[in-house]
Design goal:
By secondary structure, the protein is mostly helical. Helices cover 86% and strands 1% of the residues. It has 13 helices and two strands, in the order ααββααααααααααα. The chain has a two-stranded antiparallel sheet with strand order 1-2. One of its GO terms (biological process) is regulation of cilium movement.
């Protein structure tokens, strides 16, 4: 009795501990999820109401079936136990035993009749007391099991409510929901297996106690075998057969329970797989919808960008036209200024050479007297010489488009005769270099191939892809040449040039005209294609499909009017125009510096005159 009660208390404590632990785990899980909800603001939301309803229905069906099966199993066990106890008690009541130490005593006559009645009363009282205790224990255990089952179902209800709350909170994350449900199902399985194992252990202990109590009774019956041996043996055989049947039925019931549990697990797994497949299908559908929306947004964005680039191209064209006009006006103005500057430069140069000659005479005559004064002015003179050389180089390279050959003006300071010798030496060196540079036939062919490749690349960048484009461009060059010749004939009647005159200044204008005519051709072609399909709207589906295809071609042609290569070419052209503008600014600053240098030279000349006067006075 004490062992059984102790085991029941231990089971209750373990069940309470497991319930508290699971409550803590659930509370911890909800708290963690609330923290995660505070931290994370944007999550993918998805709710499958049908899945939740199916799961609730399955769970309720399983719980109801478990209660009914438990009741049926308990009723069958109670009926079998009662049937087994009835013949056992009836057989015990037939016999009487009188024990004195270890010897059996049988009585005859009246004393023999009285003793078995007393013994029956004594034996029945002890045995019945044991049976009553056993029954009371069985009733208590039934009640405890019922209470445990009720507690278990209450726990299940409480946990189901918590699960519903957790599912409502965490319905955003389907994958976490499925994992959480699996973990709980596994926990319930483990919990049920623990209960089954404990009930088996309790039943085995009770069975052992009953067997130990019944061993003594069986020994007493074995002693009574002398009195009536044959019916007692038959009854024992019947009892053994009944016990075997009970064991077999118990084993069959256990096997049936295991099979049913396996079937339930398989059904649950199948349902979970179906749910996962449905969720995957829904997720794929949502992904496809999301991708379609993204593609639509990208198409809208691309159309906006195309319109934006068209506007930018138009702005660039306008800016280029304004730059051209400004450049032409500036060029007309700068020609006069440049001619005046060249004349001034030649005068300054002549004066500077004369000054150098005079300085040489002064150095030869007054080298000792005025060495210190000349050393002071020599550094300034060298600076002005370098500035003049740089200005001369800019004028030769940028205006006359010729190479500039530097002369050693330092040697002019030392000796007048060295000027003529250095110039002749430079000319001889140039002649010798030209003689040494002998060109072979292979080099000429390679140069021709390189030039052809360069021409092809230049034509591609300009937008000349076909022979028709090339013919159009050449026609524009010849037309421009004819217009230029007509202008020159009006201004200069003596001009007799029959070839194609090349001016690098007007090439950009010709290329711009070429782009304008290409755009006109494309627009005319597109307009012709549109007029063909204006009157074919109400014909048939095939014609409508063809019209859509041709509209696509129309938009492709519109995009090809200004391809990406042309946009890059205009951008690079803009960069070079900006650089050219900066060079013009630098040229203007150089011209201003030249005027300043003229003033300084005049001041130096005045100083030299003063020096001469002072020397003459001495």
């Amino acid at each position: 009795m004490s062992n059984i009660n102790g085991q029941g208390e231990i089971q209750e404590e373990t069940s309470n501990a497991t319930s508290t632990e699971k409550k803590k785990e659930n509370n911890g899980y909800t708290s963690i999820e609330r923290k995660e909800e505070k931290d994370v603001t944007y999550n993918f939301e998805y709710r499958n109401v049908e899945c939740d309803l199916n799961y609730d229905n399955l769970r309720n069906d399983i719980i109801n079936n478990l209660g009914e099966k438990q009741k049926e199993f308990i009723e069958e066990l109670s009926v079998k136990i009662k049937e087994e106890e009835k013949p056992f008690l009836e057989n015990i009541k037939k016999y009487a035993v009188y024990l004195e130490g270890s010897n059996f005593m049988t009585c005859s006559g009246e004393n023999g009749k009285i003793l078995p009645e007393q013994l029956e009363d004594i034996y029945q009282s002890d045995f019945q007391n044991n049976i009553t205790d056993v029954k009371a224990l069985a009733i208590k255990e039934k009640e405890t099991y019922k209470k445990k089952i009720e507690k278990y179902f209450s726990l299940l209800k409480y946990k189901d409510e918590q699960i519903k709350k957790v599912c409502e909170i965490n319905s955003k994350n389907i994958s976490s929901f499925i994992a959480f449900m699996r973990n709980q199902m596994e926990g319930y399985k483990v919990y049920l297996e623990d209960i089954l194992n404990k009930t088996r252990d309790d039943l085995n202990l009770k069975r052992r106690n009953l067997l130990s109590n019944n061993k003594q009774i069986l020994e007493d019956f074995m002693r009574m075998r002398n009195m009536n041996s044959t019916p007692f043996i038959d009854e024992l055989k019947i009892q053994n057969a009944l016990s075997k049947k009970v064991k077999e039925t118990h084993e069959q019931n256990h096997l049936n329970l295991e099979e049913k549990n396996e079937l339930l697990e398989n059904n649950l797994n199948m349902n979970m797989q179906h749910i996962q497949e449905i969720n995957d299908i829904l997720m794929d559908r949502e992904k496809n919808i999301y991708n379609i929306k993204l593609l639509q947004q990208k198409n809208c964005h691309n159309l906006k960008m195309i319109n934006f680039y068209k506007l930018e191209i138009n702005k660039l064209r306008e800016s280029l036209l304004s730059v051209k006009t400004y450049y032409y006006n500036y060029k007309i103005k700068s020609k006069k200024n440049i001619s005046e500057l060249i004349n001034q430069y030649e005068r300054i140069k002549f004066q500077f050479i004369e000054l150098q000659k005079r300085q040489k005479s002064y150095e030869q005559n007054f080298q000792k007297k005025y060495a210190k004064a000349w050393d002071l002015q020599k550094s300034e003179a060298n600076k002005y010489i370098e500035k003049l050389i740089s200005a001369n180089q800019i004028i030769h390279e940028q205006i006359f488009l010729k190479k500039f050959y530097k002369t050693n003006y330092k040697q002019l300071i030392e000796d007048n005769s060295s000027l003529i010798s250095t110039a002749t030496k430079d000319d001889e060196n140039l002649k010798t270099q030209l003689i040494e540079k002998q060109v072979t036939v292979q080099q000429i062919e390679n140069d021709i191939d390189d030039e052809q490749e360069k021409m092809k690349k230049i034509l591609k960048y300009i937008g000349v892809h076909t022979q028709e484009d090339l013919e159009l461009l050449t026609q524009l060059f010849y037309i421009d040449n004819q217009e230029a010749n007509e202008d020159t004939q009006k201004n200069n009647r003596d001009s007799e040039e029959n070839g194609l005159s090349y001016n690098s200044e007007y090439t950009l204008d010709i290329i711009f005209k070429y782009y304008q005519e290409k755009e006109k051709d494309n627009i005319c072609r597109i307009a012709n294609n549109k007029q063909k399909y204006k009157n074919r709207l109400n014909v048939s589906l095939k014609l409508i499909i063809e019209r859509k295809k041709q509209e696509k071609k129309y938009w492709d042609n519109l995009t090809q009017i200004t391809p990406d290569d042309m946009i890059e070419l205009w951008k690079t052209f803009l960069i070079f125009v900006e650089k050219y503008y900066h060079t013009l600014k630098e040229r203007a600053t150089i011209i201003q510096n030249i005027f300043k240098e003229e003033k300084l030279i005049k001041e130096n000349l005045s100083k030299i005159d003063k020096m001469r006067k002072s020397l003459s006075s001495l």
